[in-house]
């Protein structure tokens, strides 16, 4: 089986589907809160021009998913599968954000559960790269069972903590 980096995944609270070009305005609306990005290395990502680069990278990645609230139909964030490595038997989940009103665990927990369940059909390990100053994301990854296994530079050359969840 080939790893589908853009599956359609349904949960009780969320619907995850491949991100589309037409989603830019709705996704930027969800991302336009500076507090979402306050602990992130790209703390200005709430700005439209900066977010445009993030969105373009998401589209080019081939693994970006839009997160839709089942109750309202609103786009509330996104996440990505990235770096599938059949030889290492792993994939990365990252670039995740949710609109602030969806913080607190239930939505992020369900998003990651859906993505992990999908990933573990193809790999034995999922990794998450989190910035050293992003304690909010570190706690969120730990809440879903992530264990810090080391450090490495991310695609932008910035130091990240590596967390892993095994099947």
Give an overview of the whole structure.
The protein has 167 residues and is α+β, with helices and mostly antiparallel strands. The protein has a single domain, classed as Gcn5-related N-acetyltransferase (GNAT) (Aminopeptidase). It contains four helices and eight strands. The longest helix is centred in the N-terminal third of the chain and has 14 residues, at 48-61. The mean pLDDT is 95.
Any descriptors?
27% helix; Aminopeptidase; 4 helices; 8-stranded mixed β-sheet; 167 residues; alpha+beta; single chain
CATH superfamily: Gcn5-related N-acetyltransferase (GNAT)
Structural class: alpha+beta
Mean pLDDT reading: 95
Number of domains: 1
Helix content: 25-40%
Oligomer status: single chain
CATH architecture annotation: 3-Layer(aba) Sandwich
Order of helices and strands: EEHHEEEHEHEE
Number of helices: 4
Please name the CATH topology: Aminopeptidase
How many β-strands, per DSSP? 8
The gist of it:
With 167 residues, the protein is an alpha+beta fold. Helix content is 27%, strand content 32%.
Give the secondary structure arrangement, pairings included.
Layout: E1 9-10, E2 14-18, H1 24-31, H2 48-61, E3 64-69, E4 75-85, E5 90-98, H3 106-119, E6 125-130, H4 135-143, E7 147-153, E8 159-166
Parallel strand pairs: 5-6
Antiparallel strand pairs: 1-2, 2-3, 3-4, 4-5, 6-8, 7-8
